[in-house]
Each structure stands twice: as structure tokens, then as C-alpha cells.
């Protein structure tokens, strides 16, 4: 296989692995009764882009979009892959062969800016959940989720490096 394709496959695999790690965390939280992300709302938000609507007062009250749950999951995993690409873009491809935890956790924490500054305001929740009933709890959950994602970047890279040897 071409080296570029191998690199792309490695980064994509790390992104999928990190996102799946976060999903396992969210599943655990859900089983413990903690409210978690509804990926249908992400799909609804993205689904309205084709109609030129990028911001909603409350995404839950916006008109549903056909296939919004599947679209939400697709966007969720594509974003995870993009964030893995960001990590490799910052630290270099060599990191994937000998991963360390610090850069992965730093990027994981950095990625919390996407929901805080883009998604939540566009979906009607305000910057960093400011317009929700419990912004502090929501911010803490976002930080925890993205920390787990960062840990997932490291663990996925470690697994893929081990398999590649």
C-alpha cells in the first residue's frame, strides 16, 4: 500500500478508535442515569445546513430531518477522525508509531472548544452551555467527555502501533 494511504488509514483508525472510546464512556454514563449526547440533534443541526440554516434558537424544536440520527453518528465519527488528523498535524506522523499520552490529552481537551464555541451556540444552548439550566454541569461533562476522547486518541494509537509492528 502507498505510504500516504497507510498514513490516512492510520489516522482514520485512531479517530474511529478514540470516538468509540468516548462512545463507551457515554454508554457507561447513560447506564448510570447521567444525561448524554443525543446524536440525532447533531444530525438535525447539520441536516438544516443544506437549507441555509446554521443557527437555531433550540435545536430540539427545529423541524426533524430525515435520517438525522444516522447523520449525527456520521458527523460524530467524521469529527473524531478530523481531530485525530489535527493531532497528527500538530505532533507529526511519527507520534503514531510511538504514541505518548500528553499530546493526545491536550488535543482532546482542546477539542472541547468545538462544542463550546460552535455547536452549542448554533444549537441554541449558548456559548459553553450558558443558556442551559445547568451550564456548570454541562461544561464539566463536556470536559470529561473530551478528556476521554483524548485518552482514546492515545489508546487507539497505542493499539494500532502495536498491531503494526
UniProtKB/TrEMBL annotation:
**Keyword Transmembrane helix (UniProt):** yes
The record, for InterPro entries, names: DUF2938
* Keyword field: Membrane, Transmembrane, Transmembrane helix
A Pfam family annotated for this UniProt entry: DUF2938
**Domain of life, per lineage:** Bacteria
> Membrane-spanning residues where?
73-95, 101-122, 143-163
Q: What is this protein called?
A: DUF2938 domain-containing protein
The species is Caenimonas aquaedulcis
Amino acid at each position: 500500500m502507498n505510504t500516504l494511504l497507510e498514513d490516512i488509514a492510520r489516522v482514520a483508525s485512531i479517530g474511529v478508535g478514540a470516538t468509540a472510546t468516548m462512545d463507551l464512556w457515554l454508554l457507561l454514563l447513560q447506564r448510570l442515569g447521567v444525561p448524554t449526547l443525543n446524536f440525532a440533534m447533531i444530525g438535525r443541526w447539520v441536516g438544516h445546513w443544506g437549507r441555509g440554516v446554521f443557527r437555531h434558537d433550540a435545536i430540539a424544536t427545529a423541524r426533524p430531518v430525515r435520517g438525522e440520527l444516522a447523520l449525527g453518528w456520521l458527523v460524530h465519527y467524521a469529527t473524531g477522525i478530523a481531530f485525530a488528523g489535527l493531532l497528527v498535524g500538530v505532533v507529526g506522523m511519527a507520534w503514531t508509531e510511538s504514541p505518548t499520552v500528553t499530546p493526545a490529552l491536550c488535543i482532546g481537551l482542546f477539542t472541547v472548544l468545538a462544542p463550546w464555541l460552535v455547536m452549542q451556540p448554533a444549537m441554541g444552548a449558548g456559548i459553553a452551555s450558558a443558556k442551559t439550566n445547568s451550564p456548570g454541569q454541562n461544561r464539566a461533562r463536556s470536559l470529561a467527555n473530551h478528556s476521554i476522547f483524548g485518552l482514546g486518541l492515545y489508546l487507539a494509537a497505542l493499539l494500532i502501533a502495536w498491531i503494526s509492528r
